[in-house]
């Protein structure tokens, strides 16, 4: 069932705000997206999309008549039935979420004199909604509603995740505010979870924590596989077929990155600590992930000895494929460690330009990055890497070592191509036996 058209103001034209705004426009609503960055807004007005997200440019283009961009708060709020908050909430030095951009939005709201609902899309600590409610009340905006409607969109598939969600979560203080936010999603099929605001906030943090726990778990299983002669790819397949476990988020690799997991794990850890609880499991998940990013360096040492003056090619820079996002990308830690050890680092990525990676030479193709290298490391599992002619690449390398940080390639085929292949959690003895 489609929803009656509403007017939606979205604050924040980042990965989440643009997808949210474009999808609501696609559902038939009139949407104004507001951002503080003049350059970003002007580019959007010209039809240029500042981020790489599959399907987003097409969706924005298809809904131009209902979707506008502005830097003006007044213009965004004019007639709005919903005010979505989708500004960033990066970690502070202590690991707590920095909510200054959220407070800025709330404090900049004009004295609205008609029904309107503020909806929190940004990931915030549990308890934030209650504080916002108090702040709105203190400003005499008691008639303005408040709801928490967290996002579960993964970069690279964000448009699909928004329009075909596993669930829509809506937490509200007043029943009718929750009803209105649910109605706004009319046209989207999916289970709806209605709850209080604090629980909605916790669902977001807990969902991410559960996914991160699975990744650190399979990474530790991978490390034990390496030590004992098993292959984690087969192990993940074998456990993932158990319906109680399921197959997703069991890909061992060089650790999770991105704009959400690292930040949200720290925020949940701090939230627990600030409330007097030591979240032991989450601490371990974070620590395992940090160590995992560095294990590739140990693998390179075992093949090459000292890394001083060795040339290492990093293939893939983005924190995962199908995005240009470099926030908390494992490639940043790897490049930093390699440069610190005196290695000569070249990198390739199909969408990240790598300009900010000081000291790293950017190559136009994987083949150019690998030529003359002592080792190649697959950092991001871009599909392009599966069609590379690895035998030709091996022939151009100084030493043909391939560390597959994402278990993207077939070990036997790589060895037949003349490469010394090492994945994550794939013991060589298994193949030799
Ligand atoms: C989002 C969420 O908001 C964050 O809480 C969630 O955990 C991850 O995703 P994201 O869209 O990825 O953030 O962030 P980003 O791409 O940095 O976009 C934020 C936008 O808000 C930027 O365009 C920034 O200019 C804008 N902004 C920031 C404002 O408009 N006002 C501010 O005060 C601060
Ligand atoms: C995540 C959540 O999935 C999404 O619901 C939330 O709204 C935002 O955070 P995102 O960070 O975009 O989305 O990507 P995701 O696909 O979850 O991957 C996160 C990280 O985990 C990546 O670095 C990825 O490489 C890694 N990962 C994922 C693994 O190492 N193994 C896996 O099996 C899955």
Main beta sheet: strand number and arrangement? 8 strands, mixed
User: What would the average pLDDT be, to the nearest integer?
Assistant: 95
Question: Could you say which structural class the secondary elements and strand pairing correspond to?
Answer: alpha/beta
- Poorly predicted runs are none
Structure description:
- With 433 residues, the chain is an alpha/beta fold.
- 42% of the residues lie in helices and 14% in strands.
- The protein has helices at 15-26, 38-45, 56-62, 73-77, 100-108, 128-138, 158-163, 175-184, 197-228, 232-240, 261-274, 280-304, 330-340, 366-370, 390-396, 411-416, 428-432, and strands at 7-11, 30-34, 67-70, 82-85, 116-120, 144-148, 168-172, 192-195, 311-315, 344-348, 361-362, 375-378, 401-404, 420-422.
- The strands form two sheets. The protein has an eight-stranded mixed β-sheet, sandwiched between helices. The chain has a six-stranded parallel β-sheet with strand order 11-10-9-12-13-14.
- Helix 8 (175-184) links the parallel strand 7 and strand 8.
- Helix 1 (15-26) packs across helix 3 (56-62) and helix 12 (280-304) packs across helix 13 (330-340).
- It is elongated.
- The site of one uridine-5'-diphosphate-xylopyranose has 19 residues, from helix 9.
């Amino acid at each position: 069932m489609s929803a009656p058209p509403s007017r939606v103001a979205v604050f924040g034209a980042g990965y989440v705000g643009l997808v949210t705004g474009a999808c609501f426009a696609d559902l038939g609503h009139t949407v104004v997206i507001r951002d503080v960055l003049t350059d970003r807004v002007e580019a959007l007005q010209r039809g240029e999309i500042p981020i790489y997200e599959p399907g987003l440019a097409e969706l924005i283009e298809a809904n131009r008549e209902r979707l506008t961009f502005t830097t003006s708060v007044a213009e965004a709020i004019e007639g709005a039935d919903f005010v979505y908050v989708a500004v960033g909430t990066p970690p502070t030095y202590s690991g707590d979420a920095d909510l200054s951009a959220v407070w800025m939005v709330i404090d900049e709201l004009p004295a609205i004199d008609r029904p309107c609902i503020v909806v929190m899309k940004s990931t915030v600590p549990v308890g934030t909604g209650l504080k916002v409610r108090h702040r709105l009340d203190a400003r005499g905006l008691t008639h303005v509603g408040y709801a928490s409607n967290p996002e579960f969109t993964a970069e690279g598939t964000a448009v699909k995740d928004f329009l075909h969600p596993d669930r829509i979560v809506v937490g509200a203080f007043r029943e009718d505010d929750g009803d209105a936010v649910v109605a706004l999603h009319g046209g989207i099929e999916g289970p709806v979870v209605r709850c209080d605001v604090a629980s909605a906030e916790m669902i977001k943090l807990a969902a991410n924590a559960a996914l991160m726990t699975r990744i650190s778990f399979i990474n530790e299983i991978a490390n034990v596989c390496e030590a004992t002669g098993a292959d984690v790819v087969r192990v993940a397949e074998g456990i993932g077929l158990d319906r109680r476990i399921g197959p997703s988020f069991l890909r061992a690799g060089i650790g999770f990155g991105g704009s959400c997991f690292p930040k949200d794990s720290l925020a949940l850890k701090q939230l627990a600590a600030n409330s007097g609880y030591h979240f032991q499991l989450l601490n371990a998940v974070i620590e395992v992930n940090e160590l995992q990013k560095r294990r590739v360096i140990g693998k390179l040492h075992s093949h090459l000895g000292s890394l001083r003056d060795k040339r290492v090619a990093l293939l893939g820079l983005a924190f995962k494929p199908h995005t240009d996002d470099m926030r908390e990308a494992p490639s940043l830690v790897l490049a930093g460690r390699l440069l610190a050890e005196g290695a000569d680092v070249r990198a390739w990525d199909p969408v990240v330009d790598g300009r900010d990676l000081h000291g790293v030479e950017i190559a136009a193709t994987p083949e150019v990055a690998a030529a003359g290298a002592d080792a190649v490391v697959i950092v991001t599992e871009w599909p392009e890497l599966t069609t590379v002619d690895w035998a030709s690449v091996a022939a151009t390398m100084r030493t043909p070592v391939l560390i597959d940080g994402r278990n993207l390639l077939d070990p036997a085929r790589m060895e037949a191509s003349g490469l010394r292949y090492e994945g994550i959690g794939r013991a060589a003895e298994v193949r030799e036996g």
